[in-house]
Amino acid sequence: MAEVEKGRKPSEESTDDSEEEDSEEEPKLKYERLANGVTEILQKDAASCMTVHDKFLALGTHFGKVFLLDIQGNLTQKFEISPVKINQISLDESGEHMGICSEDGKVQVFGLYTREGFHENFDCPVKVIYVRGGILIYSLLLYEKNWLNRWKTSTLHEGEGTITNVQWRANLIAWANNMGVKIYDISTKQRITNVLRDNVSLRPDMYPCSLCWKDNSTLIIGWGSSIKICVVKERGHTELRDLPSRYVEIVSAFETEFFISGLAPLADQLVTLYFVKENSDHMEEEFRARPCLDIIQPLPEGYEEISSDALTVRNFQENECRDYRLEHSEGESLYYIISPKDIVVAKERDQDDHIDWLLDKKKYEEALMAAEISFKNIKRHEKIGMAYINHLVEKGDYDTAARKCQKVLGKNMELWENEVYRFKTIGQLKAISQYLPRGDLRLRPAIYEMILHEFLKSDYEGFATLIREWPGELYNNMTIVQAVTDHLKKDPMNSTLLTTLAELYTYDQRYDRALEIYLRLRHKDVYQLIHKHDLFSSIEDKIVLLMDFDKEKAVDMLLDNEDKILIDRVVEELRDRPELLHIYLHKLFKRDHHKGQRYHERQIGLYAEYDRPNLLPFLRDSIHCPLEKVLRHFQNCVKLTHCNLSFIGRMGNCRRALQMIMEELEDVDKAIEFAKEQDDAELWEDLISYSIDKPPFITGLLNNIGTHVDPILLIHRIKEGMEIPNLRDSLVKILQDYNLQILLREGCKKILVADSLSLLQKMHRTQMRGVRVDEENICESCHASILPSDMAQNFSVVVFHCRHMFHKECLPSPGTIPGVQFCNICSAKRRGPGSGILEMKK
């Protein structure tokens, strides 16, 4: 491999080595020294020129020899051409004919596979030769074969010194001499332009011109330290006159900080082989003498450097700018750097090279991603993932290393087990536990059991998490159950272990044991376990435990599954816990008033003891309570309650209930409230009669009966001279209540009148609107079209506000009210807004 050093711009200051490595960009090209036969040749001789064909290489030397080589540099054929330096070699497109020119003026063209040939000798050195099909160019003499297979000679240019470079593309030929670069159009036999040499102070033999065609119309010229990009364009018809049909536009021209030795295109960029200027002050001598290969992006008046590589070729210290050449193979994007004692091949880096660079920079994540994206194009790096994992483990980033195992190890179970044992060795089994395969592809059960035992030793919560997340098929369930049981002997009340043991029992279908643990722990999943596995037969004797844990959920579950746990069974289990029995029966009654009817009598006592506010609603809604037994129950109660009295009233003995309130409770407010509930005039009369000789009761009546009984009736019955507490306030209140009633009536009257007027006006506006009559309407009597077919005739139509229409002659006889006609359809139902009539005549 050729040694390559990344180049630096002269203006850059040296920095710390580590910082330089971090900021170093990935190279664009990779380099390889052309060896095999080339090495032996250049040990005895020196390269002077080389040309590249897709199939082979042709190398010329200073001792006048030409060697044909394969792409790997192996020697295939040797030609003794001249005792002096070979200046240039040219191959035609097919690779069947080769042209050679040498320093002693010899020009030879011959077939590599035929005997045909062409030989010519000149008195001066011939620097360039170009072979293309049946055309030969050297020293700007154009040789063309005619139909008799004879050479026809024509001179393209003369009188300006030695020609140093020729390049041909399509119909355009470009050549360089000491004055500049000319471009010739062979199709029109016209020279298009002359691009003058910029820096005339440089010796053209020391700093030769470099030419290359980027495409059929773009020529790149490098001479000295300047680069120009020229585009050949068609001239407009109005501009022709005596000018060539094409012209050249220089689209980019710029100076560089180096001397150009060779040029080649790379997409829209440019590959430049250069020799560093001797007057550069910021470079070391050793680095300055090396040839450099740059990739630059041309701009209209400058360039941007993309990459720069300094090449350590053999004997580079003895070489000059003219000793280097750059040849390229367009088909494979290969660039050959030719020096007298070495040939280096540069090629674009592929995906494998990109991954190599990432690995070298320890960018394992990016390397792995690049390998995944381009897995079809890479030829090596099968173990890049393992290298990344090893790097993470060495760095101590165990969690990331374990996570990457999923992607890297994939379905290779052997690699998975090796990694698990490695993580065990370094004490990091917990890190890899959550990433182990647990789907269709699985490791041996012993692997999972080993990790569970590791968690069980030090992390109960982590152990419980794995049991919840891992399918039970991964490990031997009984082995883990036994291990958990052994740990519970040391810590029998550990809720985490108990919960986990219940989950293990559930997976093992030992639901009764799991249920016992859940109930013992009062775990929220107990109800889910019962529903999911239909364990209702197992909970018949555990109903009290369930209700002690969560009464609401337990009762809802029992009621939702009455077919599995009968009501009688639940009542039997709750007989010693009346407060729980009441909750159950109460919810049962709320759902269905009839299902628990046999327990309604018992519920009266339960309501009276645990839920008195709901007793009265229960009594009102239940039709299954024996009234005599209920009444006996209330009569046995020492303390009367509102429910007792309401029930007595419900049985029809309202006077008895009112008497009990007045005599036993002596509560006038309750008596008034009871009378209001019953809304019975006789009951009010009894209340007034009982209260007439009791001043406190009279005060209560005066304050509360104004909306049910006329207060005057009560006032007239009060004896003269009786002292009544707060009589004045009570009378004032009666007057205020009366005044309020009057105000309310007047307000309601005003609202009623205003609404009536508004509705009347609305009805009037509605009835004043026109009614659309067209041919689609029919007479409601004869069912013919309401409009005649001949609109010129006189006709009369009657339209009611109810939208019923009649021909006037079809209208029924008038009603009983003279001058008023009603719609007989609507009047049969109800006489209303449609009574009015609109008459249309023509």
TrEMBL record:
Keywords: Autophagy, Cytoplasm, Cytoplasmic vesicle, Endosome, Golgi apparatus, Lysosome, Membrane, Metal-binding, Protein transport, Transport, Zinc, Zinc-finger. The keyword Metal-binding applies. The keyword Transcription regulation does not apply. Residues 779-827 form the RING-type domain. CHCR repeats lie at residues 555-700. It is a peripheral membrane protein. One of its GO terms (cellular component) is Golgi apparatus. Transmembrane segments: none annotated. Residues 1-12 have a biased composition (Basic and acidic residues). Residues 1-28 are annotated as: Disordered. GO terms for molecular function: zinc ion binding. InterPro entries: Beta-prop_Vps41, Clathrin_H-chain/VPS_repeat, TPR-like_helical_dom_sf, Vps41, Vps41/Vps8, WD40/YVTN_repeat-like_dom_sf, WD40_repeat_dom_sf, Znf_RING. One of its GO terms (biological process) is cellular response to starvation. It comes from the Eukaryota. It is found in: Cytoplasm, Cytosol; Early endosome membrane; Endosome membrane; Late endosome membrane. Residues 13-25 have a biased composition (Acidic residues). Signal peptide: none annotated. Plays a role in vesicle-mediated protein trafficking to lysosomal compartments including the endocytic membrane transport pathways. Belongs to the VPS41 family. This is Vacuolar protein sorting-associated protein 41 homolog.
